[in-house]
Amino acid sequence: MNKKPFISIVIPVKNFERTIEKTFEYLLKLDYPHEKWEIVIADGGSTDRTIAIIEDWQQKYPFIKLVDVPNSPSPGFARNKALNVVKGDFLFFTDADCAPCRDWVNQILEIFNKDERIGAVGGEVYTLRVDPDNLVELWCEYFRFNMVSARYRFIKEGYVPNLPDDPAPSEVAGHRAYFFGT
Length: 182
What we know:
The protein is of the alpha/beta class. The protein contains six helices and seven strands. The protein is globular, with a radius of gyration of 15 Å.
């Protein structure tokens, strides 16, 4: 994988006006060429300023795309809908309250490069804590997991579990060729 592949970063959102801009700021600091990626936001029916914030960012960064998923029952459902428009050879899933480190993409791609049979990669997730009194944000600070899986099976099988009460944010990325479940 000497040539940098085109990647898609998919983020499901619903009423994330408090954190989406910070997540964009972290994503823009990624050590990966901006012409080699897209950010696909799957909005599940936000009623706050989330859409307006995303549209403002789209004006500055045309590689940010917005997919409308009205009445989405879960983040997994919204992620699945975003798969219809992604163009990347590798899919990176994160949430609108996560703070990916600068080398997140390169570290994951480096692991895939080690052995073509690798189909999943996991790692830590750093969530944004903007409200010191928010117990969910506090809990998420201590829950650090991500998983990488295959684009091919995500698209063919439509696999991201549709959990009505998604218990915690996660970062996920994957390659087209293989699949390992979350």
